[in-house]
Amino acid sequence: MTTLQFQERILNLQKNMFHFALMLTDDKHNAEDLLQETMLKVLDNREKYQDNTNFKAWVLTIMRNIFINNYRKILRNQVVLEQSEDFISICLLQNHQTDDFEASIDMEEITYIINNLHDKLKIPFSMYLSGYSYYEIAQKMDIPIGTVKSRISTTRKTLQRIYEET
After folding, report:
1. What is the mean pLDDT of the segment spanning 6-21?
2. How many CA atoms lie within 13 A of 145 on its CB side?
3. Residue after which a domain boundary falls, among 77, 109, 140
4. Which of 77, 109, 142 is the last residue of a domain?
5. pLDDT for position 101
6. How far apart are CA 13 and CA 17, in angstroms?
7. Which terminus of the chain has fewer Cβ atoms in its 10 Å neighbourhood, N or C?
8. Which of 40, 36, 130, 141 minimizes the C-alpha distance to 77?
9. Is the CB of residue 42 less than 8 Å from the CB of residue 10?
10. Are 68 and 90 members of one domain?
C-alpha cells in the first residue's frame, strides 16, 4: 500500500474513529483529542500495518489501546483527597509558604474553619486548592461546572467572613 493510499484510508475512517472515540470518552473534546492522538500514532506506525489485514480494526485497536493507557495514567496520577487537617494545611502552606509565627497560627485557624465546613463546600474547595481545575472537579463530583465555581466562591467568601470575625 502506498503512502497516499494509506492516508486516504485513514482519512476515510475519521468519522468512524470519532464515533468510537466518543463512545470511549463520553466527551466531545476528549474524543477529539483521542482522535488526533490516534491519527498521529497510526501515521507514525504506518510501516507496522500488514497488507491484507483489517485496516479499520487495526486503527480502532490502536485508539482503544491509547485510551486504556491514558486511563491507566490518570489512575496512577490521581491523588486521593484526604479530608483531614494535614491535607488542607499542606495545600495552604504550599500556596503561602512563610516562617512567620503569626502566619502559622492563622493557618491553624483557617484549617479549623475549612474542616468545619459542609462537605459540599469543603470538597470542591480542597480539590481546587490541590490543583484540580473547575472542569476536573465538576467531572469527579458529577455536578455542573457553574455549581463548582459557585461553591468555591461561596467558600472563599465564607472563609473571609469567618476569618474577619475572629
Report:
1. 92
2. 5
3. 77
4. 77
5. 44
6. 6
7. C
8. 130
9. yes
10. no
Q: What is the CATH number of the domain that holds 160?
A: 1.10.10.10
Q: What is the pTM of this model?
A: 0.48
> Cβ distance 35 to 14 under 8 Å?
yes
Single-letter code of the amino acid located at 131: G
Shared domain check, 41 and 90:
no
- Residues with Cβ within 8 Å of 117's Cβ and at least 6 positions away in sequence, in order, are 125, 155, 158
C-alpha cell at 120: 459540599
The domain total for the chain is 2
CA–CA separation, 86 vs 155, rounded Å? Answer: 19
Residue entry with cell 483521542: 34
Query: What tens digit of pLDDT does each residue of 132-163 get?
Result: 888 888 888 889 989 999 988 888 887 777 66
Q: What is the CA 29 to chain-centroid distance, rounded?
A: 12
Residue type, 129: L
